[in-house]
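Q: Start with the shorter request: fold the first protein.
A: Done. Sequence, then structure:
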Amino acid sequence: ESAYVLGSFSLEPAERGFVIVDEQPLAWSADPGEQVHAVNPDGTMWLTAGIGFAKDADGRSIEDRRPFVEFDLGAPRELSALQVWNYCEGHVRDLTSRGVRELRVLTSAGPDAPWAEAGRFTLPRCSGPARPESLPLKRQGIRRVRLEPLSNHAGVTYPAAGDPPDNGFVGLAEVRFLDAAGRPIPGVRVAAVSSELASFRRTAAHLVDGSGLEITRRGWKDQGLPFYAGPVSYEQTYEIPSPQGRYLLRLGDWNGSVARVRVNGRLAGRIVAPPWECDLTPWIRPGANRIAVEVVGTLKNTLGPHHGNPPLGSAWPGMFQRGPQAGPPPGREYSTVAYGLFQPFRLERRGHGR
């Protein structure tokens, strides 16, 4: 059965689950967050055609047993690192086992130059949106880079033999190459690929076009309260010496089940739908007006489901029984939703009459 800890405290993600720490204050403004990759793969990720799943133009089964993808940087470049977002398909069911586990990276000075191994790396399996993994790749005079998956998270090793599970699929979501200053190199294109599942729009071109990337919104779940479902109050004081016209409170970027608005401690209204505004005119008084927006979360974060990359918007008993066999996963892999205000609210005056 579930056990619940009550009180004033914060949580920090650990290698397994979370650890309890002293209560930490919440930040008013949002952290800019990091770029993650959404879990819907159509038109956003690369997936090989697999082994025996698709057919070529002549009707023969495709067998991509030695997958690879090559990139052309456009000109000789100095590289500092490679950023990789692993395959994170999970919009219908969890297919993140198709992500790369072991990756070999080779580099070349040009189309006719020999390949040299630049490193071998282990990529973690995704749980929810993919976060970037930074792989050190200090090289000079490099124009082409080749990525060769050596295994996936379903246990398939490459070159694949026999009839591997899940047709031996393997893929990635996004790739970026960083120059000596740590900036993304523009104009990178895919030069060659072993295969791609084009019929499902899982093509290699999506690895460098930024499709699927989005900025995370840092709510209170990333500030020590991943399982909190209640309200968090965001407050500002406005000096209004002589109120005139109408006063509307408007929300920008936010997420929650409802936002309650209070003026000088009194409930002025609730915001539940676009255009995300509340008329505060009857509650505004001359002088200082303390306005509070209480964003309320949901029990999704408290009760789950927390494991197995569950899609949002639905839950059934079996989803609550999908805990990892090895015990709690890392805290950052728990499925929770970012609730909160991600930019300050605004108080707007309209017109001049009361």
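Q: Next, the second protein, separately.
A: Sequence, then structure:
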Amino acid sequence: MYINLNTYLIDGMLSEWTGEFQEVVSYITPTPDTEAQVIGKYPLLDEEAALSVLDSSLKAYDLGLGQWPTMHPLKRCEKVSHFVQLMKGKRDEVAHILMAEIGKTKTDAYSEFDRTVEYIEATVDFYRSKMQKLSQPSKKGGITAKIMSAPRGIALCMGPYNYPLNETLTIIIPALLTGNVVIFKPPRIGVLLHAPILEAFAEAFPAGVVNTVFGEGQKVITPIMQSGKVDVMAFIGSAKVADAIRNQHPFPHRLHAILGLEAKNPAIIMEDADLEVASNECLGGALSFNGQRCTALKNIFVPRSKADEFVQLLAHKVDQLKLGAPQEDGVKLTPLPEMSRVEYLQELVNDAVAKGARVVNQNYGVKGGTYYFPAVLFPVPIEARIAHEEQFGPVIPVMIYDDLSEVINFVTHSHYGQQASIFTQNKETVNKMIDTLSHQVSRININSQCQRGPDNLPFTGRKDSAQGVLSIREALRAFSLPLVVAGKTNELNEALICS
């Protein structure tokens, strides 16, 4: 496989790039001993090209008077539906690049593509229904009014590497449906998989409505943000990067930010928990896509009386997982997409062991290259780095508690507040934990791992974990503003407003 991505999307055309390129090296090798391979390249745009992309977007938006923002919402729905039909023809191609570029298993790669298609279709259906209802005027208090929806303007959309297709399009599509013009930049890892769908963007949408920038953030994002002409920043990634990008905008109160950031989701196991259920859910919650998910379970708290039994169950199940190349049948763990991630995880393990934890599963370790078999760490002390840092990888810290107040105190003082999982069979315990954690996290999962879906549910976080809400309904709201057209109820105004 070699993906020669030598174009970028601007003014509705795939423009050939003749400047510098970035080679893409894949560590997702057939065996641990196989050397990393170059699987493609993509353009390293410069400042001049980035500003040309911005100009294309501004021209298409035209202060809200362009073809796209003034197009009837139901017509925009048709355009997005046409895009998704074109996209469906690229399913195999995109899935295979997902496997090679970031290490998704074959099942997960196809699942990400299919879930993205389902999200787009569901969002179109919801938006179409919403617009049909909003077109009906209301009369109350002597005022006749019609509520419309107005776009925010130029939306800069940047998705993460772990779900580079799904979480990029789940911000691009709501932005487009609501009449915004989009500039999107893929993550540093996960660029090539967008190559097959660039033609679909070019065919489905008017010129300049969707533009792409590839390259180093400082060279392409910085000038776009410093122009002050971006109205919406939709970003999924680390808070450090999000802050660096947002702070470049000269008019911060004008910039509307929609951010999905880090998380350190806890699993809290109670005395009466079904340990078989808890260990299965914690296994999947901690290690789906090698733990490279913001919604992954990243700290597990166990009462002292149940700790040894639970850890033995979990460690045994971890050791049964198959580590291998994404294309192999039955593989649950795949190579990590970059060597620096292996080095970082090893630092966390070494730090925890130096402070009193031990690795309790037998198969742990680097097997060669970026083939990294998970570590179950126990008992992890509160002062260990992994108790507080988001590992974003296959290392599972298990912590002992003697009193539930210790866990509540830990969660309360954490910088993060996305989700939590509670394992118990007691209704009173559930109610108590909901009352307590509802002020700390945005989703509480009962006897289940943390997750984003289904997409009709709000997806957000407290503290440093998010800003804004994503899901079908909330994302459409985030990228638009209600516009009220109103006047005193009389025959003339009714005719003018309701026409």
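Q: Describe the second briefly.
A: The two ends are 56 Å apart (CA to CA). The mean pLDDT is 96.
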